[in-house]
Amino acid sequence: MAEIGFRNVHHRFGERTVLAGIDLTLTEHRVGIVGANGSGKSTMARMINGLVSPTSGTVTVDGLDTTAKGREVRRQVGFVFTDPDNQIVMPTVAEDVGFSLRRSGLNKEQLADRVAQTLSRFGLAGHADHPTHLLSGGQKQLLALAAVLVTRPQVIVADEPTTLLDLRNARMVSDLLYGMPEQLVLVTHHLHLLDGFDRVVVIDAGRVVADGPPADALPAYTGLLA
Amino acid sequence: MQRPRYPRGPGMIGLYQPGTSVLHRLPAGWKLLAMLLAIVGIVLLQAPWQLGVAALAVVGGFALARIPARVTWSQLWPMRWFLLFIAVFQVIFTGWERAVMTCGTLLLTVAVAALITLTTRVTEMLDVCQRLLGPLRRFGVDPDRAGLVLALTIRCIPLMVEIVGAVSQARKARGAGFSLRALVVPSVVRALRRADAIGDALTARGVDD
User: pLDDT confidence of B209, banded at 50, 70, 90?
Assistant: First the structure.
């Protein structure tokens, strides 16, 4: 597993402090990040992929600074957004997965093979030529995940990937995420998804207030609401 | 293999119909060239009987590509009011023959374009555009980026339809009457927010790398 490091990370949006001194080293297979809306958890997640640079401090993935080496980091870290419609670029399913590989150096046949394998893994093989805007919400999120995993990243960061889905689709996506061999950092409000995770980090007002196995960290989080 | 049935959606954009016909297998560049020549040919037609022959050729093209009639119909049906308006205008001011020629020309050119769209993947068309733009690299044009812009434009049409639909429904749900400002302002704000989010997602997918 990759080593994701936060070293004295602070972040501000204008006058508002979003993260206030985060120090963490994440090496576990499955890590959950929970917190109230506006607690800073999504900002943390985006820092792992280099989408947001900290105001001060450093975020690293296997020693690579996500600000200075964003390009290299993004080859290792895939990001799944809450709304898959923002992530899907091409008009058909196979074309969108293939879009992720456009600079991979694969020839046409290799690219088609890799896309077909990935679609098959996500149960989308029968939808290869289906228009992306006509997929169901669950299928769109599966496609977004497939488009990330086709590049074979080491780490997947998923920011509330089940929030917009109904129960069945949320279960399908979360089962897939849980079963992946890749390292997973999951930001979620659905606490039951974190059963079986190796570690849960609880963020409140930009600080880590609990950190440990789900059995310890989740009661600490729900205790904040009491 | 059974052809998949697609539900109707906003704009029917990007409705490639998978298949193995000669038209599907023909390289996109040749198809686009053939489309250009066909459209020029149709525009130059002089008599209704010539239009009839061209119509038979276009119908033959759809049959050759094995495009289902309902799909063909869905491509042409949205033109009905526009064609009716043109036809009435032409009959009043120029006569029935001119009306037939004008409406027939419009209908056939759209049908030819639809035939190419239905048998060609967007990525294949974008590859052709990128190849054509290749020589402009020396003038600072980035063909990859131009191709991506075209793909995003196509992709954003159903997204915009969705945004305008949602804003319109929100207005109705609040019992408000029609107001252009109440439709345009939130639609533009939502579109800009979505553009920001798509920008982030493109960065995350390594587009700038």
Answer: low
Burial (CB count within 10 angstroms: exposed 0-12, middle 13-18, buried 19+), residue B146: middle
Q: Which residues of B touch A129 (CB under 8 A)?
A: 4, 16-18, 121
CB-CB: which of B121, B148, B206 is closest to A95? B121
Q: Which residues of chain A have pLDDT under 70?
A: none
Q: Do A91 and B18 touch (CB under 8 A)?
A: no
Residues of B with CB under 8 A from a CB of A: 4, 6-7, 9-10, 13-18, 121-123, 144, 148, 151-152, 154-155, 158-159, 162, 194, 197-198, 200-206, 209
**pLDDT score of B6 more than 80:** no
Domain of A20, in residue numbers:
4-225
Q: Own/partner pairs for A177-180, CB < 8 Å, 24+ apart?
A: A177/A145, A178/A30, A180/A149, A180/A156
In the block, residue with structure tokens 């950092």 = A185
CB A98 within 8 A of CB B123: yes
| Global pTM value | 0.77
- The Cα B35–Cα A218 span in angstroms is 62
- The count of structural domains within chain A is 1
ipTM of this predicted structure = 0.77
How confident is the model at residue A211, as a pLDDT? 93
Domain ranges of chain B: 10-120, 134-204
Q: Which amino acid is at A112?
A: A
Give the domain CATH number at A176: 3.40.50.300
